[in-house]
Amino acid sequence: MVKEKYLRLGELLIREGLITANQLEKVIVVQRQEGGRLGEILVKMGMIQEDQMVAVLGKQLNMPYFSLGTGMLKPAIEQGLEQLIPQEFALKNAVLPLSRTLRSLTVAMADPLDLILIDNLRKLTGCEINPIIATRPDITKATQEFYGKSAMLQNAVDSSYDINVSITQGQEDNGQELSLDKLIARSEEAPVVKLVDLIIRQAIDERASDIHIEPFKDRISLRYRIDGKLYEIPPPVKHLHLPIVSRVKILAKLDIAEKRLPQDGAILVRIDERPIDIRVSIIPTIYGEKAVLRILDRGGTTLNLSSMGFDAKQLEQVRKAIFSPYGLVFITGPTGSGKSTSLYAILNEIKSPDKNIVTVEDPVEYKMDGINQVQIKPEVGLTFAAALRSFLRQDPDIMLVGEVRDLETAQICIRSALTGHLVLSTLHTNDAPTCVSRLMDIGIEPYMLAPSLLIVIAQRLVRKLCPDCKEAYEPTAAQLKGASVKAELIYRPKGCAKCNNAGYKGRTCIVEVMPITLEIQDMINQRATAQKIRDAARAAGMQTLYESGIKKVESGITSLEEILSTTLGVE
């Protein structure tokens, strides 16, 4: 039998049909110029997926390739593997013990060619190492599941009962950003430093939007807001409250000595080269300072209008308005209804090199390339109105105003819309027709509002059912509570490991889109009530928030209970 010729990785990839010879030549040129491994460069350039590259590398090395999808990356239980390789070492080096037979230990490795790591594993475990290959993300996920993804946070919280430390401002360089990639490697740092980093990392991993650190008489409360709901997390001991808040202040570049006044700041975090902005708010309470950290994950939020929750007709109406050369677009809803995210999704869709886009916000939530963003500072006179007056001298095509709060800001927005600019903004109203009444109530004249207003979008956020555990059922009349659901079977939450037994995972929008027709313009000029405008809009085909929600119930996206608790009920 003739032994098959040893093929290099590039040749194997070509033979498998994953890349072409021309692509290989390009990558080799890059490798000669910049160095690095061929496979890593291919993945970085987007020519091949990491799992495809690792599978082929396994063939080249004659080594098994395991992935999460096959169920093979599951360590054997009751073999004491977690004692052989501690969690910190496993996460730091992207290795996972799978099974042990006598003195032979099978280990999943992201880099099985790292001979020094294999030698360290041999010394650490006292076993001969039998490596298999897997992707780094798969190993990280499997490691978190095996050791318990909250174990690190729990251990840090438990250890906090035995420590009593203080933090001074000199410990942290205010010019540095917080990197959580090397969290495990920094295990020698002060316990509170590690504890705060772990709290932030755990919140990001759990898809939390906010972290609440609250002092009470004899305890600290630690809560994460996930998909709009607050969940209690095991808290540190009471005497660590001051060091934890001081650490947060240092990271956010705030005054740690000021404990009487509210303070606002920001932290930039990086995880796997993914930038995450954290907005920090500190307020004094009777038991000490409360800290709320708002997590703004640029990489985790899809700023895509098509995926926001609009149906086809609504999306067409919105796009017609936002691609108009001038006019006013309003998004309305209560705090936390996703208005800012929708505005950024609109900007992301309409931005182009031939348009000058300027925004004035409080605060700037997402930093976007190619857009001039201004943070208001009322203490120095930089208000929404002052910024808008300056914008008009900046030759803008599109202006975004974070929120209309007063008559002067509203007037400048409307004048700008009437003089050839597209203006996007938000207002706090419960539905779309009420937006018109609110603007007239604060002093906007109908003759200015009617020709400038293009469209009003009202929205709410509702939780999406977990696709892995939602269960179908036929609702009874009592369960429907008068709702007119056309589908015979709808879905309800159940709960599983993938959604932390919540039954829900992620959120989507229910929306009410009201284009300003000629009929509605006439009604505005006649100072018609919100109810009359609402009736006219519904007659023209407007779908209410409740009706939008019922459609998502019928599609199996969310539950009837979620819609009934979010909207006013049957309409």
Core attributes:
22 helices; single chain; 7-stranded mixed sheet; alpha/beta; disordered N terminus; 571 residues; 22% strand
Topology, pairings included?
Layout (H helix, E strand, L loop, with lengths): L8 H7 L5 H14 L3 H7 L5 H11 L20 H4 L2 H7 L1 E7 L2 E6 L5 H11 L2 E6 L2 H12 L3 H9 L18 E2 L11 H15 L2 E8 L4 E7 L2 E5 L7 H11 L11 E9 L2 E12 L2 E10 L14 H11 L4 E6 L6 H12 L6 E5 L10 E4 L8 H8 L6 E4 L5 H12 L3 E6 L4 H10 L4 H7 E13 L5 E3 L3 H4 L9 E3 L11 E12 L2 H8 L4 H10 L5 H10 L5 H7 L5
Parallel strand pairs: 2-3, 4-8, 11-15, 11-16, 12-13, 12-14, 14-15
Antiparallel strand pairs: 1-2, 5-6, 5-10, 6-7, 8-9, 9-10, 16-19, 17-18
Helix pairs in contact: 3-4, 9-10, 10-11, 14-15, 15-17, 16-20, 17-19, 19-20
Please identify the structural class as seen in this structure.
Answer: alpha/beta
The stretches of 5 or more residues where confidence is low (pLDDT under 50) are: 1-5, 163-175, 183-188
Main sheet: strands, sense, barrel: 7 strands, mixed
Q: Order of strands side by side in the largest beta sheet?
A: 4-8-9-10-5-6-7
What value does the Rg take, in angstroms?
A: 28 Å
Q: Any idea what the shape is? A: globular
Helix count equals 22
The helicity comes to 25-40%
Q: In whole angstroms, how far apart are the ends?
A: 78 Å
Number of strands: 19
Determine the oligomeric state from the structure: single chain
Strand % is 15-25%
Overall average pLDDT: 83
